[in-house]
């Protein structure tokens, strides 16, 4: 992460200086495994706005082969403005692209979806090879803020819109062959707060020999969840149906896709 975050032992509070020594990071963890990294201003008036913008409180979520970081990236006001813009400007797939083919039958996807990204990228979606739509300013704004907060870059985004708690996404891993190996996935959420569940690949049924407990999170309005390697190798995730949720939600997963030339040479494998 930016500002020189370092990972600490559990149950210990340590400090690290930022490169300019204007901020320091404090991290503490509790017995549940959660920890928080807080960037603390040294002298209030000395820190420029540009640096303050990079100060986020991160919660580390760690389990066997699961490594995630969670923060509130946008204030409530910013998030509401962005949500309204997304609702007005994002054009979702329709027709065959809003359906999935399972065991010889077509089904409507229980949410709306679309992809945006850099020119020249190609990926397979519902069995069809597609190019993402070109970036628009509201997506540039979100992507740039994630890049500022994490130091990671992204060239592609998958957007999911859930009209209410009936819309959902089933257990899956983000392990598409087009992803840059070991790259993190940045998941930003706007609108209704929804439950999000990780299940370890060896503990998905009651009869599994190994019983690792699911990891359950609530993804809030304006939040960012970083799913770091190797989370998506070992853990499935889902956004379950929640009948009581009546408001819409938009989720954007920013990804780093390989370029055509990287795919053909097998670079980065
Ligand atoms: O809506 C979410 O929070 C998850 C979306 C997701 O898992 C995906 O797009 O692959
Ligand atoms: Mn996913």
UniProtKB/TrEMBL annotation:
Localisation: Nucleus, Nucleolus; Nucleus, Nucleoplasm
Transmembrane segments: none
Predominant cellular place of this UniProt entry's protein: nucleus
Keyword Iron: yes
Gene Ontology terms describing biological process: DNA alkylation repair
GO cellular component: nucleolus; nucleoplasm
EC primary class: oxidoreductase
Catalytically driven reaction(s): a methylated nucleobase within DNA + 2-oxoglutarate + O2 = a nucleobase within DNA + formaldehyde + succinate + CO2; an N(3)-methyl-2'-deoxycytidine in double-stranded DNA + 2-oxoglutarate + O2 = a 2'-deoxycytidine in double-stranded DNA + formaldehyde + succinate + CO2 + H(+); a 3,N(4)-etheno-2'-deoxycytidine in double-stranded DNA + 2-oxoglutarate + O2 + H2O = a 2'-deoxycytidine in double-stranded DNA + glyoxal + succinate + CO2; a 3,N(4)-etheno-2'-deoxycytidine in single-stranded DNA + 2-oxoglutarate + O2 + H2O = a 2'-deoxycytidine in single-stranded DNA + glyoxal + succinate + CO2
Binding site for substrate: 103-105, 123-125, 175
Record protein name field: DNA oxidative demethylase ALKBH2
